[in-house]
Amino acid sequence: MGQLREFAQHKADFDRINTKIVALSVDDVAHAREAWEKAAHRQFPVLSDPGAKVIREYGLLHADGHDGQDIAIRTTIYIDASGREVWRRVSDSVIDVPKVKEVLARIQATK
Amino acid sequence: MKRGWKIAGLSVLVVAIVLLLVFLRAIRVPKPQIESAVGKPAPDFTLKDQDGRDFTLSSLRGSPVLLIFYRGYW
Description:
The structure holds two protein chains of two kinds. Chain A has helices spanning 2-9, 11-16, 29-38, 53-57, 100-109; strands at 20-25, 46-48, 61-66, 69-72, 75-79, 85-90. Chain A is an alpha+beta fold. Chain A has one domain (2-97): Glutaredoxin (3-Layer(aba) Sandwich), CATH 3.40.30. In chain A, the strands form three sheets. Chain A has a two-stranded parallel sheet with strand order 1-2. Chain A is globular, with a radius of gyration of 14 Å. The mean pLDDT of chain A is 94. Chain B has one domain. Chain B has one helix and three strands, in the order αβββ. Chain B has one helix at 2-26; strands at 46-48, 54-56, 65-69. Chain B has a two-stranded antiparallel sheet. In chain B, β1 and β2 (54-56) form a beta hairpin.
């Protein structure tokens, strides 16, 4: 959850480059709301994909990833204003968490 | 003597933390089914947001979007 917290703390940096942040996971709406309040600090939408339908569509399913439940592989995807994917950063271990500084630098590099 | 125990305790703690990090680092997650979709339209979707309202990705068209897939809130 530290990941959402860090991005929430730096929301202004993303506003400056006109980039909207959206988070999603397999959490149900109640848990998404908890994440929105306690981790995202109400700074950006936190969506609920309990059947992992969208996660599958993006090819980011970690089958049986947590207590036998399918979850998402931790990933950040940058989509341009026309709706095209510019890059994606996929974590390769459970402690590989993207940092805001790294993401901002990567966004700037693609502008 | 007390100081010695403190140092020993701290050393054990540091070693335990390092070992834990090495262990967690070693737990690999599977490779994504799609490693890259650069240049392709991001699939549009509608999901419920934290308030139970529909949220559609394409409603943000015109602004860049950072989509964060996280593991879950537990």
